[in-house]
């Protein structure tokens, strides 16, 4: 039986190799149909065969690679990947193509979150509505005060709550995906230095519409938040290109 320190070391090695290989695949540095062997992994990363196998097992579960007899581990094309996996989202957003990736993810949010807000206006319990109103108020205050870390944490929590309070279990399972998008957008500087006052107020307006049980206003207001987000990403990305 492995000692706790040894198990921790193996987990650390596994995480390191997984991060490097996943990033290389999602950035295109490892191209589709390229073959990876366990022997190469052992040599390159200085890890054991068991760590290499465990890393491949996880990458296979994400559909980034597939093991083929007498060939080895083959990198799969992007259309095979589990694009909803938060780790894949993280790796794709770390690539040079992050802006287009982020725009496509926000387009996905635009298709889902307004409907979640509409459903929440008809399905959320009184306690859930009260919680959402409180979150919107805290979010507004954090934005007004320029507390970026607290604002991000509350923004993630607010959007996850709307998904959950929709009463649709499929929507609620997307909370980690939405959270990864929000965190990555901040991490790569694709957010304004201070939250836009209009966007802050719209979050409050979404909560108020849900409280009033007004599904159409909840839907329209949430959609306006996401349309503004797409516009902000484009503007900030263009500014970054000019600066470089």
Automatic annotation (TrEMBL):
Pfam family for this entry, one: FCD
InterPro entries: GntR_C, TF_FadR/GntR_C, Tscrpt_reg_HTH_GntR, WH-like_DNA-bd_sf, WH_DNA-bd_sf
Protein name (Swiss-Prot/TrEMBL): FCD domain-containing protein
PANTHER family in alphabetical order: GNTR FAMILY REGULATORY PROTEIN, TRANSCRIPTIONAL REGULATOR, GNTR FAMILY
Domain HTH gntR-type: 11-78
Organismal lineage: Bacteria, Bacillati, Actinomycetota, Actinomycetes, Micrococcales
Source organism per UniProt: Herbiconiux moechotypicola
Signal peptide (UniProt feature, chain positions): none
Keywords: DNA-binding, Transcription, Transcription regulation
